[in-house]
Write a structure and sequence with these properties.
CATH topology of the largest domain: TIM Barrel
Largest sheet: 8 strands, mixed
Number of helices: 13
Radius of gyration: 20 Å
Oligomer: single chain
Number of domains: 2
CATH superfamily of the largest domain: Metal-dependent hydrolases
CATH architecture of the largest domain: Alpha-Beta Barrel
Distance between the termini: 16 Å
Helix content: 25-40%
CATH class of the largest domain: Alpha Beta
Number of strands: 19
């Protein structure tokens, strides 16, 4: 079956290069199966089996949320209230969620994760990465990833989220568990491995050890870095060829230089250039009253930037990519075009994907129809439900 999406007032393709949207006015798109078969000015559109009239609205690629923690149980609304009353954020609340997650049934975890994925889809997200990290036992990390894999192919093993209470006196023994039995149990359900490299979590040597074990097991590398203060996270991400380093709130000149430098990775095809994407998570700064990352500094240095929600019950309980776009424009000095690109093509690059986050012949048919004439309205009208229709893999939802 083919689908013609017609009468598009503004079609955002992301086909004009990094950070550039590539806009086609008065456009149309033809979808065959789960792929885009034709794209261009509506006057030349071929016939299709069914037609969706966009009514002059803007159409853009589905959002790519490349950082989310959706398999959990419990609620930390009281913690949020305490922060709003002036208590600082330290990251220690993770253990609260760990306790609730361990006590939850598979069905309870599946219900919460599925609800959040559906919530994100209604807001235009067609690809979401889901991390583990709230089980922190061999069995609980494996089941978290098994549930996540039911919802997305972009699954990340984050056994190194924090050191659980039972290993507080011997964190290296926990590192051994993460690199050994836990990694072995998680590997069948994971595509990526991640480490929270931060004070109070995992130091440089521990992070290197865990990333090396994950890479040896065939997992791609990701990293939480430089959220709570300056640290080795960004440098380690670049040195190890990680696809993305996420948060990037506190950066030195050396961090910027490292991210801006191209790298040739022996893990890729010979001669292929790889870069580590800086993924910014403004929902976390909103929720913790922390300083926002300086996106302008990153962009002006030519660094690839992605936006993601960091959806989790403690420090960023939002599934809304439009909200993150609005925050990026208002608080992080991104232009509207840069923010939309970062939330679509940027997220795809953070997942090392070239079939999503763009609208082009052969790409996945993941599209969002706005209830607005232009992508500019995503930041211009924050908090307004502007997603009219979502097409995911060629299917209307």
């Amino acid at each position: 079956m083919s689908l013609l999406i017609d009468n598009i007032g503004e079609l955002v393709t992301n086909g004009a290069g990094p950070g550039l949207l590539g806009v086609i006015p008065d456009a149309a798109v033809v979808v065959e199966g789960d792929r885009i078969a034709w794209i261009g000015a509506r006057g030349g559109a071929p016939a299709a089996d069914t037609r969706l009239d966009a009514g002059g609205a803007a159409v853009l690629p589905g959002f790519v949320d490349s950082h989310a923690h959706l398999v959990f149980a419990g609620d930390r609304a009281a913690e949020f209230g305490a922060r709003m009353a002036g208590e600082p954020y330290t990251g220690g609340g993770i253990r609260t969620t760990v306790g609730a997650t361990r006590a939850a049934s598979d069905d309870e975890l599946r219900h919460t994760a599925g609800r959040l994925v559906a919530e994100a889809r209604r807001q235009g997200t067609t690809t979401v990465e889901i991390k583990s990290g709230y089980g922190l036992t061999v069995a609980d990390e494996a089941r978290s990833l098994r549930i996540a894999r039911e919802l997305t192919e972009e699954t990340t093993f984050l056994g190194a989220h924090t050191v659980p209470a039972e290993y507080a006196d011997d964190p290296w023994r926990y590192v051994g568990l993460v690199c050994g039995p836990m990694l072995a149990a998680a590997r069948p359900y994971a595509k990526w491995i991640d480490v929270f490299c931060e004070r109070g979590a995992f130091d440089e040597d521990q992070t290197r050890t865990i990333l090396a074990a994950g890479q040896a097991a065939g997992l791609g590398l990701r990293l939480h870095g430089n959220q709570l203060g300056p640290g080795p996270g960004v440098r380690l991400a670049v040195e190890t060829g990680a696809a993305s380093v996420d948060h990037c709130t506190h950066l030195t000149d050396a961090d910027i230089d490292a991210l801006a430098s191209p790298r040739f990775d022996c893990m890729c095809a010979r001669g292929s250039e790889t870069t580590t994407v800086a993924t910014l998570l403004p929902g976390a700064e909103f929720s913790t009253r922390s300083p926002y990352p300086d996106a302008r500094r990153l962009l002006d240095a030519g660094i690839t930037v992605a936006l993601a929600t960091d959806c989790n019950p403690g420090s960023s309980y939002t599934s809304s990519m439009p909200f993150c776009i609005a925050l990026a424009v208002r608080e992080m000095r991104m232009t509207q075009a840069e923010a939309v690109w970062a939330a679509t093509a940027g997220g795809a690059r953070a997942l090392r994907r070239d079939d999503i986050g763009v609208l082009a012949v052969g790409a996945r048919a993941d599209l969002t129809v706005l209830d607005a004439p232009s992508h500019l309205h995503l930041a211009y009208r924050p908090g307004v439900p502007l997603i009219r229709t979502v097409v995911q893999g060629g299917v209307l939802s």
